[in-house]
Specification:
Blueprint (H helix, E strand, L loop, with lengths): L16 H12 L10 H16 L6 H12 L5 H15 L10
Helix pairs in contact: 1-4, 2-3, 2-4, 3-4
């Protein structure tokens, strides 16, 4: 009987989008009131805000500024707000990444 044995090497763990997002926020040093379990919902909310602001709007600048202002108004610095928005876009709504600037 011919067969094959499965190796005992551990398979690589592919990160979920939520894990990638939580790690990105942690790496950036952004502190939020959200727990790691709640943080993905924040990222999705950022994408929802971008979607609402960008739909039918040929100029993305007001939408992007609006998201940064909203996040900064909730206790983040402007730099943290931009970082959170970029991380959210990179993981959950990459179609908006081109509007994030450098």
């Amino acid at each position: 009987m011919a067969g094959f044995a499965l190796g005992s090497a551990a398979t690589a763990h592919a990160q979920t989008d939520d894990e990638r997002f939580v790690n990105a926020v942690d790496t950036l040093g952004i502190e939020t009131a959200a727990t790691p379990e709640e943080l993905p919902a924040v990222g999705h909310h950022v994408c929802d805000m971008l979607t609402a602001g960008l739909v039918g709007n040929p100029n993305p600048v007001p939408a992007v500024r609006g998201v940064v202002t909203t996040l900064a108004g909730n206790g983040m610095s402007k730099e943290q707000a931009v970082g959170l928005m970029r991380a959210s876009s990179a993981v959950y709504c990459p179609q908006f990444a081109r509007f994030m600037g450098r």
